Amino acid sequence: MIKPGSKWFWDGLDAYLLANQLKQTKQRKMIVEEFLAMPAHVQAEQLYQRVNEKGEKVGLATIYRTLNLLKEAKLVEQCVFADGRSVFELSPPGSHHDHLICISCGEIAEFENEEIESVQRQIALEKGFKLYSHRLYLYGLCTSCQRKT
Ligand SMILES: [Zn+2]
Ligand SMILES: [Zn+2]
Questions:
Q1: Which segments in the chain show pLDDT lower than 70?
Q2: Beta-carbon neighbours within 5 Å of ion ligand 2
Q3: What DSSP state is assigned to residue 94?
């Protein structure tokens, strides 16, 4: 996890806007800056709340549009968890991680494991699949929720 968005992010956004003949608006820049200042996994509603708490009047639809633009630009990825939450996170080039999700408090932990990655590549190879991406979500109880039960 890399925060806040550094050069690769802003360069990538500039390139995407240019390629799509879009202008960097003050409002979009502000929304993106707030997104970057938040913890790793951001729900659109949380970003909406944060932006509006700053006194900016921005609709939820605009927040979604901005997040989707970042997704289109391959600067962020969206994870949809089984509990219905949809979170956006930065996606630095060449990086990959998977997630553990607590089904009680919603905590999200990240992990990277080269062994798992390589087994998945092997399986795809055996099945004759050309692999593009994968998402692995592990659901369970985090340590503090285990103590509560
Ligand atoms: Zn928990
Ligand atoms: Zn993550």
A1: 1-5
A2: 89, 110
A3: T
pLDDT at 3: 55
Indicate which ligand has the atom closest to the C-alpha of 108: 2
Q: How far apart are CA 66 and CA 1, in angstroms?
A: 21
Q: Using CA atoms, how far apart are residues 34 and 105, in angstroms rounded to an integer?
A: 24
Q: Which residues surround ligand 1, an ion (CB under 5 A)?
A: 102, 104-105, 107, 142, 145
Q: Any idea which ligand is nearest the CA of 146?
A: 1
Determine the Cα–Cα distance for residues 149 and 144; give it in Å rounded to an integer.
Answer: 9
pTM of the predicted structure, to 2 decimals: 0.88
CA of 15 to the centre of ligand 1 (A): 39
Residue 101 per-residue DSSP state: E
**What domains can you pick out in the chain, each with its CATH number?**
7-90 (1.10.10.10), 98-148 (3.30.1490.190)
The DSSP result for 18-61, as a single string, is HHTT----HHHHHHHHHHHTS-SSB-HHHHHHHHHHTT----HH
- Å from CA of 56 to ligand 2 middle: 28
pLDDT score for 1: 42
